[in-house]
Design a protein that fits this description.
The protein is an alpha+beta fold. It is built from 3 helices and 2 strands, in the order ββααα. It has a domain of 71 residues. The radius of gyration is 26 Å and the shape is elongated.
Length: 105
């Protein structure tokens, strides 16, 4: 199990993660630190806990907006299985022809 030391809002945190996820966790920590700094600049230093709460609320608002956008998009049309089968047969026939030509060469 990996561990990453993150510095967020001037405070250090040792966070565990699965092996191989350290770089992703560092990137997330850097983004969180950036957002904490932006929030601190906008509202002043209200204490570590309050800044983290404000950032968390901001992130949740972004997630809510993204989910609303995703649900507003039309769902992709289901594939016509007969058409898919026909196209796969065409591709298979073309590949068979290529294989035969290569075998003769």
């Amino acid at each position: 199990m990996g561990q990453v030391s993150l510095k967020i809002g001037g405070f250090s945190y040792l966070v565990g993660c699965a092996d191989g996820e350290e770089a992703q966790l560092r990137a997330l920590g850097e983004e969180l630190d950036r957002r904490v700094a932006e929030t601190r600049a906008a509202v002043g230093n209200r204490g570590e806990a309050m800044l983290l709460v404000l950032v968390a609320l901001s992130l949740l608002d972004e997630v809510k907006d993204l989910k609303a956008e995703a649900s507003a998009r039309p769902a992709p049309a289901p594939a016509d299985s007969a058409e898919v089968g026909r196209r796969l047969a065409q591709v298979a026939a073309r590949l068979d022809g290529v294989a035969r030509r290569l075998a003769r060469a």
